[in-house]
């Protein structure tokens, strides 16, 4: 099993920035991909970004069109932690953000992820 714990959410004004963290523990050697999803009130959970977990990977991360150029995903394998730097936030980014891990290759489908964190709330005020 892999345990994932998100942190870094909060309240920010439009145009502001936040950095989310996802700390992984347990059988992390099973992880091939880590990703971020988000769920706004009354909506389905959507893909945000994903990154290959291996430090040797040369594959570029994936981003949803709605966050390209504003969000940056990264990882620190030594700390077993993934990050999501979010800039130029706007109210449409308000959601619960979930960290997820997959045993498979780089992918965007929610159903392809095996492990999930509990989520962290991000609220962007106008």
Please render the helix and strand layout as text:
Blueprint: E1 2-7, E2 10-13, E3 18-26, E4 33-39, E5 45-52, E6 62-63, E7 71-76, E8 81-86, E9 95-102, E10 115-116, E11 120-125
Parallel strand pairs: 2-11
Antiparallel strand pairs: 1-3, 3-8, 4-5, 4-9, 5-6, 7-8, 9-10, 9-11
Indicate the radius of gyration in whole angstroms.
Answer: 14 Å
The best one-word shape is globular
What is the end-to-end distance?
40 Å
Order of helices and strands: EEEEEEEEEEE
- The number of strands is 11
Low-confidence stretches: none
**Largest sheet entry:** 7 strands, mixed
> Given the structure, what is the number of helices?
0
Write down the overall mean pLDDT.
Answer: 95
* Helix content estimate: under 10%
Seen as an oligomer or otherwise, the chain set is single chain
Category from helices, strands and their pairing: mainly beta
> What fraction of the residues are assigned to beta strands by DSSP?
over 45%
Report on the architecture of this protein.
The chain has no helices and eleven strands. The model has no long low-confidence stretch (mean pLDDT 95).
Features:
126 residues, seven-stranded mixed sheet, four-stranded antiparallel sheet, 0% helix, globular
Q: Brief description of this entry?
A:
The chain has 126 residues and is mainly beta. It has strands at 2-7, 10-13, 18-26, 33-39, 45-52, 62-63, 71-76, 81-86, 95-102, 115-116, 120-125. Helices cover 0% and strands 51% of the residues.
């Amino acid at each position: 099993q892999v345990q994932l714990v998100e942190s870094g959410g909060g309240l920010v004004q439009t145009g502001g920035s936040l950095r989310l963290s996802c700390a992984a523990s347990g059988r992390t050697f099973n992880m091939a991909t880590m990703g971020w999803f988000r769920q706004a009130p009354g909506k389905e959970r959507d893909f945000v970004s994903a990154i290959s977990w291996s430090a040797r990977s040369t594959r570029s991360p994936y981003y949803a069109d709605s966050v390209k150029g504003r969000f940056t995903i990264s990882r620190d394998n030594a700390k077993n932690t993934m990050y999501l730097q979010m800039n130029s936030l706007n109210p449409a980014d308000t959601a619960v953000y979930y960290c997820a891990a997959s045993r498979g290759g780089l992918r965007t489908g929610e159903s392809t992820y095996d492990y999930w964190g509990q989520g962290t709330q991000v609220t962007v005020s106008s």
